[in-house]
Structure formats: C-alpha cells, structure tokens
Amino acid sequence: MAVLPVTPDQVATVWEQVLLKVRDRLTSSQAFDTWFRPIVAREFGPQSVDLEVPNAFFVDWIHEHHLHLLRQAFTDVLGDCPDIRFSAREPLPLPVTPREAVAPPPPVVPAAPAPSVTDPRLRGWLESQLHPRLTFESFVVGASNRFTHAAAMAVSQRPGDVYNPLFIYGESGLGKTHILHAVGHEVKRLNPDARVFYVSAERFTNEIIWAIQHGQTAAFRSRYRNADVLLVDDVQFLAGKESTQEEFFHTFNALRDAHKQIVVTADKAPKDIAGMEERLISRFNQGLVADTQQPDLETRIAILRARADEDPGNVRLADDVVLMIADRVRGNVRELEGCLVRLMAVASLTHREVTQELANEVLAQYVRPEAEHHQPDRILAAVSERFGVRPETLVGKRRTQAIALPRQVAMYLMRHLTELSLVEIGACFGGRDHSTVIHACRQIAEKIQRDEAFRDKVNGLFSTVAS
Predict the structure, then answer these.
(1) pLDDT band at 191 (very low <50, low <70, confident <90, very high)
(2) Which of 337, 366, 395 corresponds to the end of one domain?
(3) Are residues 146 and 283 located together in one domain of the fold?
(4) Quick one: 179 and 320 in the same domain?
(5) Overall number of domains in the chain
(6) Range with the lowest mean pLDDT among 97-101, 204-208, 227-231?
(7) Higher confidence at residue 441 or residue 152?
(8) Around Cβ 126, how many Cβ atoms within 10 Å?
(9) How far apart are CA 160 and CA 262, in angstroms?
(10) Is the pLDDT of residue 157 over 90?
(11) Would you say residue 114 lies in a domain?
(12) What is the Cα–Cα distance from 379 to 371, expressed in whole angstroms?
C-alpha cells in the first residue's frame, strides 16, 4: 500500500493526526506528554519522514519502547509507514555562575549533530524545554480556570515572592500543562536571563536514574537546584518512588529556601495522592493549592474559536459547527482540541468543506456514546408534580410564567442529569432550538444563586430524579 502524499503545508496537520493515534493507544498520558509531545515534524518526503527530538536519549527510548506504536500510527493515517528518521537537538549547557563553577558539568547525552542555534528565543526554549505555543496569550480563560489563571499570572510576575509553591490540580486535559509553560514563558519575557526549567515527573525520574547509573548525581542536582523557576508536571507520577521523592524533596527545599519559584501540577489534590510522602504533601500545602475544572459551554466554544484561528489552513468554522462540537465533547480541553484537529485534517485531506454533516461524521468516530443516566420522561414527571402542571403542558407552546419557569427547570435538569445534547433537549420540548435551552439553563443557574428557597426546590428535584 502506497503512502499518501503530504504537501509541506499539510505536515503539521498530518503530524497532529499521527499524535492522536499514538495517544489513543498509549495507556499513560504522562508517557505521551513526555516522549511524543516534544517531537517536531520537520519534513514528510515520499519515502521518509524527518522528526526532531530534544536529544539522543529520546531516540533510544522511542526505538526501544514506542517505535512499533509510532509506525502503526503512521500506517493508520497515511496508509503505510514511511522510513522514520530522527534528528536530535543537543541540549545547551547552562550559563555558569560562581555557585555552579565548583560543580561538575551537567551530563551530556551523546547526540546526533544538531544545527547551530543563534536565535536567543530558540536558545531559551531549548534550555527551558518550553513549548512555544503554550503561552498566556493562547490560554482561554473561563469560569472553570479563572482563579488558577490569576494565581499563575501573579507567580510569573513575582516568582518566589507569592504563592510558593503553586500547586495546580485537576483531571487530565484541562490545561494544567499549558499553565505551566505559560508561567515559564512569562518569566522569561520579563527576565530573559532567568533560569526556567520545565520537566515532567516521569522525565525527572528517568534523569535521576540515568544520573545515578552514570555517576552524574552532582551534576543533576546542580542543574535543578540552581533554577530560578522549576515547573514540574504530573507530580503524582512520583508516588511510590521513594528514592525519587527523596531527591525531589531536597531539590524542593533548596529552591524554596533560596526563594526560587516552584510550580507543580497533579491530577489530584496533595492529600489525595496515594503513595506520596507526608513531608512532600505538607510542603505542597504550604503554598497555594488551586484546581482546574471542566470548562463550561461558553468556554469550550471560545477554546474552539481560538484553536481554529491558530490553524495554518485558515479554515473558517461556522457557528453551528462550533456549537455542535462544544456541545458534544464535554470531557476536557484535550479531547475538544483533538476532535477539532481531526475535523480540520479530514476536511483538508479530502478537500471537503467543514459542515455540520462532516462534523457529525467525525464526532461519530471520535466521541464514544454514553448511556443516559436518567430518562427525560422521569424528569418531566418529577417537575410536573413539583410545580403542579401537566407534562404535556411543559413540552407544549404555552409561554406563561407559570409554565415557563418549570419548563426551564426541566431543561436545566436534563442538561445536568442526562447526556442529551442541547439540540436533543430542545427536541424534547416541542422542537425548541439550542439557544432556548442555553437561555433556560442560564436563567435557572442565576435564580439558584440568588434565591435560597428556589435552590432548595431544585436540589429536591435532583434528589427525586436521582433516587
């Protein structure tokens, strides 16, 4: 089977498709973020692809653990697997300060020849391992992450002075990694000489293992303990690894005692990470603990708009398509962006316009159907009984206040207790459109906030339907 041709302007889109396939097959999101996210696709030729990785250690690790997976992903996307060629960037040595002069040099992993780097911004990125796209400017702020965003901004503007450490937790795919990189970029923008290091907990573990095996622990410690800002992703990966936690504990203390900033992320609050030493949990709780939650509908729409604007293909998304994706993909930001990338890749590679029909096709493959938790009829019956109206009146066309309020409550309950989309909920009420459902949910949410008696009534309905 021949490999599908890929033009230069399609390289980024096709590579995102390959990454989606890889991520779907990997059991660990940490492994994906550590070993595949840093890869940059440089060129897709007729017989081979050129991929750039941070260093030769990546090449060895991928060849040993993930090469078969990568080949499968290319086959799925292109129809066959081309010859995969890796080029490694040589990590740049850190500037030597008087404090570092007596320490051994940092470990250098043998690497393939790398191009010379003259752009200071590129040097800073290679040194810090910051992703160039993950900045505060590209981060979409909504109700679910506004507090965390504000805390991260404060930390990046006054590193070491406020909220140290900053501990950010939340489910996978909600933007924690983006926030980490954004802090690093902002610190470097305000102080280009700042030593900023981003590292996943998995990579931290692998590096300390490598350092021990090669007698380079002093150099390892010098590198991390002389940082101005240390950004550690998915710290829960350290759970159960006693020696790595020991090393991280002393690194943490050295940085904090020197008033250097530490920002870490995890999938749980500190107290809920099983296998994490109590002394580390205590230190995490000494600073500010902030959580990120699933984005609401408006935020998901804004994320889709922002992500579409970044696409080099400049594909315009109609409002109905954006709403359809935002309404159907509710899990997390990563799933939301992944669905959009898939949609735009399909449109580009098949030369089709992005329509609701095409979006439906992609969503059918991308979004796993989930069973409804509660039947709409049960919700209608409970609301009708509580408000003293007939179920058929709720779904009818009357718009008096006596009917409009319970109808909005029923829509609100369906939105929260079922997996029905906005369009499907509207269909339950005589074919009303999605905007009516959005308005109803917003009205009820606001009334719940200001009216305690009404809040108790709605909570009672939740209990009745859920029982």
Answers:
(1) very high
(2) 366
(3) yes
(4) no
(5) 4
(6) 97-101
(7) 152
(8) 18
(9) 8
(10) yes
(11) no
(12) 16
Provide the CB-side half-sphere exposure for 185 (13 A, CA).
Answer: 17
> Which is more confidently placed, 56 or 334?
334
Contacts of 461 (CB under 8 A, 6+ apart): 382, 383, 386, 409, 413
Q: What distance in Å separates the CA atoms of residue 382 and residue 379, rounded to the nearest whole number? A: 5
For residue 168, give the H/E element and its range: strand 166-169
| 406 token code pair | 């319970």
Residue 431 DSSP label: S
Residue 101 belongs to some domain of the structure = no
Q: Which spans in 89-175 are helix H?
A: 120-128, 146-157
Which pLDDT value is given to residue 251? 92
- Report the alpha-carbon distance of residue 194 to residue 191 in Å, rounded: 6
Instruction: Give Cα separations from 145 to 300, 325, 364 (angstroms).
Output: 12, 20, 29
Same domain? 380 vs 359: no
End position of a domain, from candidates 246, 270, 291: 291
Q: Determine the average pLDDT of the residues in 223-242.
A: 90
**69 domain-assigned:** yes
| CATH number of the structural domain spanning residue 348 | 1.10.8.60
CATH of the domain at 72: 3.30.300.180
Lowest mean pLDDT among 28-32, 268-272, 435-439: 28-32
The phi-psi region of residue 263 (left if phi > 0; otherwise alpha if psi is between -120 and 50; otherwise beta) is: beta
DSSP code string of 192-207: TT--EEEEEHHHHHHH
**What is the identity of the amino acid at 294?**
Q
Q: What's this model's pTM, rounded to 2 decimal places?
A: 0.57
Question: Across all residues in the chain, what is the average pLDDT?
Answer: 80
**Are 328 and 382 part of one and the same domain?**
no
Of the listed ranges 76-80, 256-260, 442-446, the least confidently predicted one is 76-80
- Beta-carbon contacts of 212 under 8 Å, excluding residues fewer than 6 positions away, are none
User: 315 with 447, same domain?
Assistant: no
> Which residue segment(s) compose the domain that 326 sits in?
297-366
Residue 429 shares a structural domain with residue 382: yes
